[in-house]
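Summary of Year 1 activities. Much of the first year was spent building the evaluation harness for sequence design. The harness presents a backbone, in tokenized form, and records the residue chosen at every position. We chose the following record to illustrate the format because it has been used consistently in internal testing since the harness was completed.
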């Protein structure tokens, strides 16, 4: 896609009904963006709105270390995230698949170090 962000911070915090998944970015041009959503892990579709996407989101645990998040935009675009932690490892891996209306579909992997 475009230029990579200058800064990318992911926070995963406990919530009474699941987790709060927050993404903070500082774009290459200095713009800041923040998005936060609750992951309920029940597979139910819920209304969702984020950076240019208005639609639904569902989330569920695939096993003790893997979470699936699916966001479907009203435009027909979607993003599918698989978040995996490897036991005692300090790494958190997020595999992302995006389907876009204009331009190529994207597949990428983000490896983050837990703090």
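For this record, the design step produced the sequence shown next.
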């Amino acid at each position: 896609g475009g230029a990579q962000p200058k800064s990318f911070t992911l926070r995963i915090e406990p919530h009474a009904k699941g987790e709060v998944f927050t993404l903070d970015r500082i774009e290459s041009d200095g713009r800041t963006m923040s998005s936060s959503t609750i992951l309920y892990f029940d597979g139910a579709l819920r209304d969702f709105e984020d950076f240019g996407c208005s639609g639904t989101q569902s989330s569920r645990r695939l096993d003790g270390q893997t979470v699936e998040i699916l966001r479907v935009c009203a435009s027909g675009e979607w993003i599918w995230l698989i978040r995996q932690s490897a036991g005692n490892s300090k790494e958190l891996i997020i595999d992302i698949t995006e389907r876009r209306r204009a331009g190529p579909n994207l597949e990428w992997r983000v490896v983050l170090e837990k703090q």
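The chain has a mean pLDDT of 89. Quantitative recovery figures across the full test set are reported in Table 2.
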